[in-house]
Write a structure and sequence with these properties.
By secondary structure, the protein is mainly alpha-helical. The protein has 2 domains: about 130 residues, no CATH class; about 200 residues, no CATH class. Helices cover about 70% and strands about 5% of the residues. The strands form 4 sheets. The protein has a two-stranded antiparallel sheet with strand order 1-2. It starts with a helix and ends with a helix. It is found in: Membrane. Keywords: Membrane, Transmembrane, Transmembrane helix. InterPro entries: Anoctamin (IPR007632), Anoctamin_TM (IPR049452). This is Anoctamin.
């Protein structure tokens, strides 16, 4: 029993190919997941024997500078021993091996999927399917029915979109794309400012548990707000991409789908990864040094990485996004 074949019979070739790809992708994730579990177990078993963790646990007399301006106090390095051990779970010697393995796995997955796709294309007789589907969109014909030219291949007259009209619509579409991307970056900057304000508030709160773990509380609330922003903007992006693609008036259905897919890819890539890129490459890089800390608007001190490293914030960000994004899978299974 092949689910892709059943999907093709019920819903057509496009859904059938998507079902085949999804099944292939899910199957190929199994070896990657197994290797990831082994790497995680390696970090778990070597957590207490790690040299970095042991040095931090024994640093009872190492006094560190306050992490914020007004409400934070000096602290000892050994206070972060739990976070240092948690960091070792995701950042150890096996992590390098896993990164190399994933790079090779991605290449193998792509090449083997090309072979599988070629088999399906031959078995389902889809060799010339794209060429057969290249028909003018009714919206395109209705818009440019008064402007015609002779098709150089078929020799028949057909609606034609003037170059000036196509260029102007394309410029408007590109401007809309850049505007939406700038909106994403603005949302990320707003979350960064929230974290700067929240860390002062959490450090001064009277609740001892929150006051002691104010960095974790700041990261947790910031990640949750960022995720809600991501999911809210996703709804807006899909509508914007749909409107911009219709504004371009693509000639055929395949051109419309390619244009829409490109916009959605750009939106999704920037929306999902901008905050992750900030934590991985920018968080804590511009905080300054004791006696000369950099501040935003000369008021809020720029956020530093957690004493055990920026990986705690990055793992929290990735974990929340990947966990809640699984709702899409449940929706795909639940909806017809």
């Amino acid at each position: 029993f092949d689910p892709a074949v059943s999907a093709r019979r019920y819903f057509g070739e496009k859904i059938g190919l998507y079902s085949a790809w999804l099944g292939w992708y899910t199957g190929m994730l199994i070896p990657a997941a197994l290797v990831g579990v082994f790497v995680f177990l390696y970090g778990l078993f070597t957590m207490d024997s790690s040299q970095v963790s042991r040095e931090i646990c024994e640093a009872n007399t190492t006094i560190m500078c306050p992490m914020c301006e007004d409400t934070c106090k000096p602290w000892t390095l050994s206070d972060t021993r739990v976070y240092a051990k948690v960091t070792h779970l995701f950042d150890n010697g096996g992590t390098v091996f896993f990164a190399i393995f994933v790079a090779m796995w991605a290449t193998v997955f792509l090449e083997f999927w090309k072979r599988r796709r070629a088999e399906l294309t031959y078995d389902w007789d889809l060799t010339n399917w794209e060429e057969e589907e290249e028909e003018l969109r009714p919206q395109f014909e209705a818009k440019y029915s008064r402007v015609e030219r002779v098709n150089p291949i078929s020799g028949k007259p057909e609606p034609f979109q003037p170059f000036s009209d196509k260029l102007s619509r394309l410029m408007v579409s590109v401007s809309g794309i850049f505007f939406v991307i700038s909106l994403v970056l603005t949302a990320v900057f707003a979350v960064v400012v929230f974290r700067l304000i929240a860390m002062e508030k959490f450090a001064s709160i009277s609740w001892y548990f929150v006051k002691k773990n104010w960095q974790f509380a700041t990261s947790g609330t910031g990640v949750c707000i960022n995720f809600m922003t991501i999911m809210s903007l996703n709804v807006v992006y899909e509508k914007v991409a749909y409107l911009l693609t219709n504004l371009e008036h693509p000639r055929t259905e395949s051109e419309w789908e390619n244009s829409f897919a490109l916009k959605m890819f750009l939106f999704q890539f920037v929306n999902l990864n901008s905050s992750t890129f900030y934590m991985a490459f920018f968080l804590g890089r511009f905080a300054g040094r004791p006696g000369k800390y950099n501040k935003l608007l000369d008021r809020w001190r720029l956020e530093e990485c957690h004493p055990s490293g920026c990986l705690i914030d990055l793992c929290l960000q990735m974990g929340v996004i990947m966990f809640f994004k699984q709702m899409n899978n449940f929706m795909e299974l639940g909806y017809p």
